[in-house]
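Hi team,

As requested, here is the filled-out complex form for the iron/sulfur cluster run. I kept the field names the same as last time so the parser does not choke. Let me know if anything looks off before we queue the next batch.

— J.
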Amino acid sequence: MNLKPKVGVVSCSGECCALGTLSRVATRLVLEELRPYQTVTLCLPLFLAGEEGEHTFAKEYPTIAVDGCGKLCARKAIARFSKEPVDGVDVEALLKEWRVKPPKDRRVLNDDGIELARRLAKLLAEKVDAVQGAA
Ligand code: SF4
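And here is what came back:
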């Protein structure tokens, strides 16, 4: 059993574009499939609405922000109301680095989009391991 402190993996809400959808799906894959016992998430809209419990968690536990684009909404919100995330991903920049085009449909990911979400989730899971390894 893993007794290390849980890591909060927090996706931007990103309803506006496919990059947000990709961020949310990859985050869910980490939470439900890849690192279910090591991770929790925060609801970013609830966090922004001022929920004290969510703020307290992000103050006391390490978080990884998963942002769809360079506006970095999740990272900035966590830093503003709690403390700086220990790590994070700007998915738009990452896809450029990977030379991969973002998914087209912002509502439902097709097979290529799901594959991309799995690749991103794998990277996030490695970041969780790194954070816990350093704890
Ligand atoms: S980081 Fe980008 S994709 Fe995510 S909510 Fe903010 S503007 Fe939308």
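Two things worth flagging: Residues 111-134 form the longest helix (24 residues). The chain has one domain: 7-130.

Thanks,
J.
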